[in-house]
Amino acid sequence: VDPNAKELDLTRHRIKKIEGFDFLHTIEYLCLRWNLIKKIENLHMLVTLTELDLYDNQITKIENLDELVNLESLDLSFNRITVLENLSALKKT
């Protein structure tokens, strides 16, 4: 993966854990649709990220988004989230 990539699509790669993205210093769009991710984690270094797509995973809780200061779009559709909390850190647009 190009460390200067602005977009990365890892749809349907059976990813279980978000990790190893700390080298993506210019990433703006990260697509992790249709994977096996259970927890939102290890994204704090992706400060240029504007769009995060976690559609259809196994996420149960919204967390660890407070350092994604440029995030404009977040898709958590078709996950296992039952309570909407920890949204205060997200930027309103």
Tell me what the structure shows.
It is built from no helices and four strands. It is mainly β and 93 residues long. A four-stranded parallel β-sheet has the order 1-2-3-4, with no helix packed on it. This is Leucine Rich Repeat family protein. Its main location: nucleus. Keywords: Leucine-rich repeat, Nucleus, Repeat. It is found in: Nucleus.
Keywords:
Leucine-rich repeat, LRR (right-handed beta-alpha superhelix); 13% strand; Leucine Rich Repeat family protein; Leu-rich_rpt; 93 residues; single chain; nucleus; 4 strands; mainly beta
H/E element sequence: EEEE
Using the 3D structure, state the CATH architecture: Alpha-Beta Horseshoe
Label the overall shape.
Answer: globular
From the N-terminal CA to the C-terminal CA, the straight-line distance is 31 Å
Residues in helix, %: under 10%
Main location: nucleus
Subcellular location: Nucleus
InterPro entries: Cilia_flagella_integrity, Leu-rich_rpt, Leu-rich_rpt_4, LRR_dom_sf
Pfam family, one: LRR_4
